[in-house]
Amino acid sequence: MTMEKNVERGLFDEVMVPCYNPMEMIPVKGEGARVWDQDGNEYIDFAGGIAVSCLGHCHPAMVKALNEQGSKLWHLSNVMTNEPALRLAKKLTEISFAEKVFFANSGAEANEAALKLARRYAADEFGPEKSEIIAFKQGFHGRTFFTVTVGGQEAYSDGFGPKPGDITHLPYNDVAALQAHISDRTCAVMMEPLQGEGGIVSPTPEFVQAVRELCDKHNALLIFDEVQTGNGRTGDFYAYQGLGITPDILSTAKSLGGGFPIGAMLTTTELAKHMKVGVHGSTYGGNPLACAVAEAVVEITSDPKTLAGVKEREVLMREGLQKINDKYGIFSEIRGKGLLLGGALNEAWQGRARDVLVAAGKQGLMMLVAGASVVRFTPSLVITPEEIEQGLARLDKAIASLV
After folding, report:
1. Residue pair 43/365 in contact by the 8 Å Cβ criterion
2. What does the UniProt entry say about where the protein is found (predicted)?
């Protein structure tokens, strides 16, 4: 399958703002866990659009939902509600702790809503001095100015002038540091229940437990950023469900729409009442098209069979990566949970994650990095065992070319 090349990669440099450095090839078609470029080259997708394409490319259930809703109703704004939004919100409350849902269009927007709710609740209930937000170093919460400041990577937030204030960053998994710092001035603690961009770092059970207890002690809200971990990615529908604690506010996006942009903030009725009419909003948030697609996605990703399948696929991925490591001695450890996995490069390979990514691309494998020294894998949750095997074989060849 070769497409006529009337759009070339050089056009990117001509017309696009240069904040990305995309691969040279341009994908034109995707099906399941495979993608084809303009020259008809086939790739196995272990990247999933950065943990978004949870059902792979062009899944029939998603295509059906899009086509059906696309011929009915696309957009209304929140001057009115709509059926897909109500059905999706109901479903999300049924499969989580939440009682109320706010729809947005991205993870950053869902996190923005979560942070604004936490600040508003604290101001209403305790007064304006209770405004500190604690987050964690190497965390990532989005690219709006508020969320990027709460994220714990200064490289992303420096250079844009004065930052939103009263935000503290502590080391992830450090119970003592949190105990020493948190106070009655803290309005919220925001964390990923498994750090994604920061290097695929799982929380220790002690840390998760301590965060919840310290939040309770100081009347601070616990916000879980499940933008990357949610929607079945870790083998539980939400990662908190496998950690034995419950947050007060949860953000979800990325794979919620399986590739169609949608985000959501989930919370309780008690907290939601502080978001009165006019306090927050979104023109596109909860539009019928996005919600109809997300409804089809959630129907599949929340199915116990799908979730069990994620855990089975994790085993296959880990075993395959271990075999590669036995051969080439490249990883110090395989980290993560479910199908959010990271191969941490050992001392000899430090800083070479992008080299692995580029070499993989040449062998027909799409994958990701999480920092300079961790390669990241976030494939479709329904990728076939055969495709996992084939993808790992391509990774093997890629690493062989670098040794």
Report:
1. yes
2. Cytoplasm
Q: What is the CA radius of gyration of the chain?
A: 21
Cα 201 to Cα 340: distance, rounded to the nearest angstrom = 10
Query: Residue type for 92, please?
Result: L
Select the CATH number that applies to the domain covering 73-301 from these four: 3.40.1050.10, 3.40.640.10, 3.40.50.300, 3.40.50.720: 3.40.640.10
pTM: 0.96
Q: Is there a binding annotation on residue 124?
A: no
Residue 120 assigned as binding residue: no
Structure tokens at 394: 């391509």
Supply the pLDDT for residue 344.
98
pLDDT band for 281, please (50, 70, 90 cuts): very high
Residue 142: C-alpha distances to residues 124, 150, 151, 210, 388 (Å): 26, 9, 7, 25, 30
Contact 116, 284 (CB under 8 A): no
**In the predicted model, is pLDDT for residue 2 greater than 60?**
no
Is 210 annotated in a binding site? The answer is: no
226 in a labelled binding site = yes
What CATH number belongs to 10-58+304-402? 3.90.1150.10
Known binding residue 228? Answer is yes
> For residue range 351-399, what is the model confidence (pLDDT) as tens digits?
999 999 999 999 999 999 999 999 999 999 999 999 999 999 999 999 9
Mean model confidence pLDDT for the chain: 96
Q: What is the pLDDT of residue 51?
A: 97
Q: How confident is the model at residue 190 (pLDDT cuts 50, 70, 90)?
A: very high
225 annotated ligand binder:
yes
Asked if residue 326 belongs to a known ligand binding site, the reply is no
Fold agreement between 10-58+304-402 and 73-301 = no
Q: Is 394 annotated as a binding residue?
A: no
**Does the annotation place 108 within a ligand binding site?**
yes
List phi, psi (to 5°) of 35. -135, 145
Q: Using 50, 70 and 90 to split pLDDT, how confident is the model at 84?
A: very high
Instruction: Quote the CA–CA distance of 378 and 196 in Å, as a whole number.
Output: 10
Q: What is the 3-state secondary structure (H, E, C) of 314-373?
A: HHHHHHHHHHHHHHHCCEEEEEEECCEEEEEECHHHCCCHHHHHHHHHHCCEECEECCCC
What is the Cα–Cα distance from 327 to 329, expressed in whole angstroms?
6
Encode pLDDT of 47-68 as tens digits.
999 999 999 999 999 999 999 9
Q: Does the annotation list 135 as a binding residue? A: no
